[in-house]
């Protein structure tokens, strides 16, 4: 598999290199040179396979002969060791529950596949994973790499801006997992990570690698669950499918669009955001004008400069698609709460991120269409807000209950690159 840097098309790398490097020069994102496509018969055959077999075929279509298909299969089997069920919500609406992995969030798919691939391509090299999280990435990456040899993980997150339980889930592990609470918002954490990747000396000294949604392996993994959703839907729904994606950094939407580009029959996507609405405003006005990031109930989507957007634009350019085929919308906290109540009345307890996707889906679904929204996290991950909004008590799933009583092991740092750099260089082997 060959990939190119979106900021410099002459920089071309292999899949192994793209995984290890994360970003290209000038902080450019890597994008696949070949965009494989399946015809309708291939798609039908794929949809009849089990999740792991199908996913490994999809991933091998991208990866090519760089990693043997049997190896990809074994790695996918280790990574995707849990289900992604479609649950009905209304007559013409269902949700794809992506929260049945060890950290109860969709990022388990990308995080665990990336850990498997990185282990595969790194051999004995020592590496340091540095990533910024607005909540779920941190937990998924921490758990995916916890205890793996030759890998150190450093996770930055905005202090006080992620849910207390989310924090417990990944900041209590210790061992090769180091967590740092930054005095700033998620964009500040992301900027620190980008600075580290621009620092050649640092990169070399610690074998720097990223593991957030900018890493192409995470994105490729996420393509697979869009296929899984379609495989579970009745034939009639397949050709009339509208998928609503709760979006922050737009990794999940990019993966969905890549699934469509492979030939998966998805009629339309809805890019669903909270008040951090840079993309919806861009899609309606044509002007890219990020505002200051604001805190919302759906805090993992509090991103005003979504870093995967250039990949979306590149895909549209390569496929000759028009951006106006994307549905979009931004949902306020008040409307998010109303959507959670509406779902509760339908017998489905949800959390703020998925509720945003649901709300826009039910507003924009046309007669004859079938709607699917992504359930990106288990409601118990946002226990405090879900309970306060719905006036109900939620039971903690085991993965969270176990960690809730443990002490946080995080460091607190200012938004200061020099301090972070010093810390990274001082990490034990
Ligand atoms: C629960 C939840 N939903 C949605 C998103 C948005 O996903 P993306 O950043 O891929 O747009 C995130 C991102 O962290 C998340 O944690």
UniProtKB/TrEMBL annotation:
Tryptophan synthase beta chain-like PALP domain location: 96-369
InterPro entries per record: Ser/Thr_deHydtase_PyrdxlP-BS, Thr_synth_N, Thr_synth_N_sf, Thr_synthase-like, Threonine_Synthase, TrpB-like_PALP, TrpB-like_PALP_sf
Record domain Threonine synthase N-terminal: where: 7-79
EC number(s) recorded for this UniProt protein: 4.2.3.1
Statement: the UniProt record of this protein carries the keyword Repeat: no
A single GO BP: threonine biosynthetic process
Keywords of this entry: Amino-acid biosynthesis, Lyase, Pyridoxal phosphate, Threonine biosynthesis
Protein name stated in the entry: Threonine synthase
UniProt source species: Samsonia erythrinae
């Amino acid at each position: 598999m060959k990939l190119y840097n979106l900021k410099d098309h002459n920089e071309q790398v292999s899949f192994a290199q793209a995984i290890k490097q994360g970003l290209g020069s000038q902080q450019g994102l890597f994008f696949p040179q070949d965009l494989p496509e399946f015809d309708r018969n291939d798609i039908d055959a794929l949809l009849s396979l089990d999740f792991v077999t199908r996913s490994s075929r999809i991933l091998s279509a991208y990866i090519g002969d760089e990693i043997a298909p049997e190896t990809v299969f074994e790695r996918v089997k280790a990574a995707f060791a849990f289900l992604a069920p479609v649950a009905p919500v209304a007559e013409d609406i269902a949700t794809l529950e992506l929260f049945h992995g060890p950290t109860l969030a969709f990022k388990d798919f990308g995080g665990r596949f990336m850990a498997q691939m990185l282990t595969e391509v790194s051999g004995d090299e020592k590496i340091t994973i540095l990533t910024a999280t607005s909540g779920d990435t941190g937990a998924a990456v921490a758990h995916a790499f916890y205890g793996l040899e030759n890998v150190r993980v450093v996770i930055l997150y905005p202090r006080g801006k992620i849910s207390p339980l989310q924090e417990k889930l990944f900041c209590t592990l210790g061992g090769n997992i180091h967590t740092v609470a930054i005095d700033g918002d998620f964009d500040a954490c992301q900027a620190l990570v980008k600075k580290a990747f621009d620092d050649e000396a640092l990169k070399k000294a610690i074998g720097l690698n990223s593991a957030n949604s900018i890493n192409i392996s995470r994105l490729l993994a996420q393509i697979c669950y869009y296929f899984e959703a379609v495989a579970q839907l009745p034939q009639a729904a397949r050709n009339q499918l509208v998928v609503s994606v709760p979006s922050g950094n737009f990794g999940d939407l990019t993966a969905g669009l890549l699934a469509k580009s492979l030939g998966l029959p998805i009629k339309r996507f809805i890019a669903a955001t909270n008040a951090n609405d840079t993309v919806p405003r861009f899609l309606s006005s044509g002007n890219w004008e990020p505002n200051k990031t604001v805190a919302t109930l759906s805090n993992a989507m509090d991103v005003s400069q979504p870093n995967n957007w250039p990949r979306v634009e590149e895909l549209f350019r390569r496929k000759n698609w028009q951006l106006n085929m994307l549905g979009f919308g931004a949902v306020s906290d008040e409307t998010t709460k109303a959507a959670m109540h509406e779902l509760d009345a339908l017998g489905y307890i949800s959390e703020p991120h998925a509720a945003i996707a649901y709300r826009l889906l039910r507003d924009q679904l046309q007669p004859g269409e079938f709607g699917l929204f992504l359930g990106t996290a288990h409601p118990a991950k946002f226990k405090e807000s879900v309970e306060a909004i719905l006036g109900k008590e939620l039971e903690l799933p085991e993965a969270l209950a176990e960690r809730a009583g443990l002490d946080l092991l995080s460091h607190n740092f200012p938004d200061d690159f020099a301090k972070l750099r010093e810390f990274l260089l001082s990490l034990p082997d």
